[in-house]
Amino acid sequence: MSAPKQPVLLTRRHALKAAAATALGLSAWNRAWAQSTETPDGLIGRIDRSVIFEGRSKNRDWSWFHPRACMAPGPKGPVAIMTLQSISGSDFYKTVHWTASTNLGKTWSQPQPIPGMDQRPTGDGLTVGVCDVVPEYHPPTKTVLAMGHNVYYEPTRLARRQGPRWPVYSVRDALGHWSALQKLEWDDPRRSLIYTCGCGQRATLPDGHVLVPLSFGPKGREDRMVATVRCTFDGRTLTVRELGNVLELRVKRGLLEPSITMLDGRYYMTLRAEDNRGYVTTSDDGLNWARIEPWRWDDGTPLDMSTTQQHWLTHSDGLFLVYTRKMPENIGVFRWRSPLLLAEVDRKTMRLKRQTEQIVFPLIGDGIKDGKNVARLGNFHVTNATPHESWVTVSEGRPTAKYRGDTLLAKIHWTRPNRLVGE
Q1: CB atoms within 10 A of CB 125
Q2: What is the pLDDT of residue 423?
Q3: What is the rounded distance in angstroms from the CA atom of residue 365 to the CA atom of residue 375?
Q4: Neighbour tally for 419: CB within 10 Å
Q5: Are 72 and 137 in contact (CB under 8 A)?
Q6: DSSP letter for each residue of 141-178
Q7: Backbone dihedral angles phi then psi of residue 203, each to the nearest 5 degrees
Q8: Tens digits of residue pLDDT in 196-215
Q9: Could you tell me where the beta strands, DSSP code E, fall in 285-379?
Q10: Is 119 helix (H, G, I), strand (E, B) or coil?
Q11: Residue 113 Ramachandran class (φ > 0 left, ψ -120 to 50 alpha, else beta)
């Protein structure tokens, strides 16, 4: 039996090229690592990497962050609609913007603000804004539903005292107009402190209903619970109709940033946690979930993860997880948030096939001795773009560089068409 395949990290030659490019004021990705990785085995043929917006070389104190895209029909073919917002401090974001690409991510329009997703004064010295937005196309109503949650800021940072928080959303119609910001109403008493779907993948059902995974908690309780709600959506208003069973992990902040997907009539959820694990569960209906289990390799060894989200990469012939984890090369990186990896899921055992692990975005720099200067890649999104390619979008988190970082796109090219996506 051959030894498990390990991901090959950035070689010394590539690291030196990246360092030289940075010293010259150029984008480390455009000049040093915007290249393809050939992966001829299995469903993934190759991964192409490129820069959407440069941030490393810009003379400013912010860059674009939280890039998340969805595909919508356009007059001349599919259009990618992506939301993003600037970051200038730890969890300190400005107005949510949108940008579009009509040529499958080769070029993008100048980002424009989404009305209502800006910051507004609360009257007590704080401002309230929106963050962690995820857009998804809703075919029955031909709209894009962009969901995030409210958040409170002091003048130059995330507010230490946060008021009640809840999901908010804006709807983009077929003409490109965004609706006023709305709140997802939910009257469950267990959500009195916070309920949010931020950063999470949702699922649109064949009847047009939307399954939304929520992380929530009451006042006076630190750990959050997770459940999914089934919502109706008429193109204007999202309404909660049914609640599933509640999942709990009473460690620190509990269960966070759940993401769901569906494949062959089964539903899958992955969850961020704060006990050095990530978790997974399955469901037959998307509401009633089995007991959560930690992510493990196929030999039963648990993965070491540190309070970072995971997301699904779903193909009609296979299911993959995109994630970060602890490894010898990144022990000095904050929460081990680089490199960004993927692996195929064994859907019978719900374990990761270790020999399928490969790099989506590599670690650039010295993750052992100089981890504080390694770009963090823990806030990302996955999009099925066409039957032939899926995308992972992420922005570099670089606190030691005034948060200047590049906004990145990885195109995952399939060896067989993804029948979950129309041409």
Answers
A1: 9
A2: 67
A3: 8
A4: 10
A5: yes
A6: GTEEEEEEEEEEEETTEE-SS---B-EEEEEE-TTSPB
A7: -135, 125
A8: 999 999 999 999 999 999 99
A9: 293-294, 311-315, 318-323, 340-346, 351-352, 358-361
A10: coil
A11: beta
| DSSP string for 226-249 | EEEEEEEE-SS-EEEEEE---B--
CA distances from 272 to 50, 238, 358 (A): 27, 25, 21
Structural tokens at position 227: 């459940």
Nearest of 385, 295, 291 to residue 343 by alpha carbon: 295
For residues 275 and 304, the answer to whether their CB atoms sit within 8 Å is no
Token output for 261: 């997907």
Task: Return the residue matching tokens 């570099």.
Answer: 396
Share of the chain residues as helix, strand and coil, in percent rounded to the nearest 5: 10, 45, 45
Q: What tokens were used for 396?
A: 């570099």
Could you tell me the two tokens for 83?
């939301």
Dihedrals φ, ψ of 44, to 5°?
-95, 120
Q: What is the pLDDT of residue 123?
A: 87
pLDDT in tens, 312-350: 999 999 999 999 999 999 999 999 999 999 999 999 999
Neighbours of 21 (CB within 10 A): 20
Rounded Cα gap, residues 153 and 274, in angstroms: 24
In whole angstroms, give the CA distance from residue 226 to residue 191: 10
283's CB contacts (< 8 A; 6+ apart) are: 228, 244, 266, 267, 268, 269, 289, 290
pTM for this one? 0.92
d(CA 307, CA 6): 23
Question: CB–CB of 259/214 below 8 Å?
Answer: no
Contact between 387 and 423 under an 8 Å Cβ cutoff? The reply is yes
